[in-house]
Amino acid sequence: MRRKVSVLDYLEENYINIPDKTAVSCEDERMSWSELRNASRELGKGIRESAEPCAGKTPVIIFMEKSVKHVVSIYGTLYSGNFYVPMDISTPAERLKSILDTLKDYIILTGREESGILEKAGYTGDYLVYEDLLKNNFGTSGSPETDAVMNGIIDTDLMYIIFTSGSTGNPKGVAIRHGSVMDYIASFMDEVGMSPDDVCGNQAPFYADMSLRDLFMTLASGAELCIIPTKYFTFPLNLLKYIDAKKISYCMWVPTVYGIVARFKALSKLRPASLKRLCFSGETMQIPVFNYWKEFYPDIEYWQFYGPSEITGSCCCYKVDNSRDYDGVIPIGRPYRNTGMLLMDEGEIVKISDTGHKGEICVYGTCLAAGYYNNPEKTKESFTSLPSEIGYDEKMYRTGDLAYYDEEGNIVFSGRSDYQVKHMGRRVELGEIESAVESVGKTDACCCVHNKLKDDIILYYIGDLLPGEMLKALGQFLPPHMMPTNAKKVDHLPQLPNGKLDRKSLEEQENS
Amino acid sequence: MRDEILEILKNVCPTVDFENEKALIDDGLLDSHAVLSIIGAFMDTYDVEFEADDILPETLNNLDSICDLVKTLLDRKAAGK
Questions:
Q1: Nearest Cα to Cα of residue A46 among A70, A92, A7, A79
Q2: Across the interface, which of B14, B40, B52 has its CB nearest the CB of A269?
């Protein structure tokens, strides 16, 4: 059997082995593996020819709502010999501009509907329209040039870039290679697995790297990727109805979503019988929320994952022991095979036997990103040298997350070491919000704090604008998930003796 | 009552025109975060409990339906259910 170098090799295999099985669905729309493969190849040819003289290896921004056509666009981009950059269509103009500046050269691929949103965001350049490319290339899926492009992929080539929040106000583009994703697939399949009969209910937006599991584990196992449109996550009963109707068996969601179902006790109204495996990651799972789900599904599998975008999806996992009562936290487990994880404290490696000793989580191995795209300074800061006793001239990624070992040798997450917080399942740099407040102007000082219990971001500021005006103005600079929940205009902000802002006292006040 | 509810809504989502918009959910004016913030504000102000079938697109689509929902919740609280 020929070895697989990129995800396209899996797609070609499914095309041969299970051509008529459903590959991806969303509400009433569905596509089989052969339809997905053929449309992706046709789109790839279209991108390649429309974008000439760009020979390939150019970022293709996919500016689309999460949808079946977005999935085709991901594979289509790869078949074109380029790498993809999934983009939130609610990205405000300022952030979009900053991302485009970072990418320098790029191609934008959008849908006919979404092109209006793109123009509204102030974009005036060229773009490719998905529907036009597919129409103009219909029937060309057998093109031998497409095979040549696919076979020319080397696993050190970039596969995608995902933009995360950056503390200076500039978003950072995490650049990931094909080889890292292939390694992630192998790790996940070894340790967790997915069966061809599974229907995977996708929650994560495609511009967040949590969606890698949904997209590529279904690909590798031949399972169905069932996209759950964002609107369902506001209404717990509608979400459960959708799961029931689509016979979803496998979910990998942020804990917030499990929390919404638990908060309104939705499972007592409807308990879908199809669920077999529930996974969570992206933030801490609250034990009462977990216990609520376990009450309704005592015998299914629960898994917790951990990993920032810089290490491609997740680097460790933990299978929950259903017979155990977790009174504090659920561990994040142990690293996958072929992935290294260290806890570092003041330059020293924390020993596994040193239970309870906190250190910063550092990760190394094939899973590591190539770096932050066109940002060597930030790359150097976060991707540092692995201690020489562990590896020769190797890099590791410093996550900024703190953790310790429990008595069983599992890693337990214990918080952030800086001002990054998890808000609604997404990573948010409070500093980036504060930079945006400065961009609004008319402000003397500000400080953002996170209310952990309510998962609210509160902006305290001294300035002329009323809270409503401030939030409205911030909307020009920040994507929705980074908007403060509440703005409080104050006369003064607490200070430390050295004159610096006393962030801690505000945090304590908010969390007391 | 209606004015008080409007005030709460405006506080939570200052950029949304609750008086004139008739399809807050269908038109995508309230996202998941906004809906949960609104529910949180009602829970704090009126000490009411929401259940899964109170939170539907049709109950939160405009100011009238939101007022009806709050009234139903207050009646349910008064009846001790």
A1: A79
A2: B52
How far is residue A68 CA from its own chain's centroid?
A: 18
pLDDT > 70 in chain A, percent: 97
What are chain A's domains? 428-511 (3.30.300.30)
The DSSP secondary-structure symbol of A228 reads -
The structure tokens 């190539």 sit at A370
Q: pLDDT tens digits for B62-80?
A: 999 999 999 999 999 998 8
Q: How many CB atoms lie within 10 A of CB A384?
A: 13
CATH of B2-78, one of 3.40.710.10, 1.10.1200.10, 3.40.47.10, 3.40.605.10: 1.10.1200.10
Sole residue written with tokens 């999806």: A313
* CB under 8 A, 24+ apart: contacts of B1-8: B1/B67, B1/B70, B1/B71, B2/B63, B2/B67, B5/B63, B5/B66, B5/B67, B5/B70, B6/B63, B8/B38, B8/B41, B8/B42, B8/B45
Structure confidence by residue, pLDDT tens digits, A122-152: 899 999 999 999 999 999 999 999 999 999 9
State the amino acid at position A334 in one-letter form.
R
Q: Which residues of A82-120 are buried (b: 16+ CB within 10 A; e: fewer)?
A: bbbbbbbbebbebbbebbbebbeebbbbbbeebbebbee
Distance CA A130, CA A434 (A): 37
Q: In chain B, where are the structural domains located?
A: 2-78
Distance CA A200, CA A215 (A): 9
Residue with tokens 């290896």: A57
Residues of A whose CB is below 8 A from B36: 234, 260
Alpha helices in A124-269 (DSSP H): 130-136, 144-151, 178-191, 211-212, 218-221, 236-246, 255-263
Distance between B1 CA and the closest CA of chain A, angstroms: 22
Nearest CB partner across the interface for A472, out of B14, B28, B40? B14
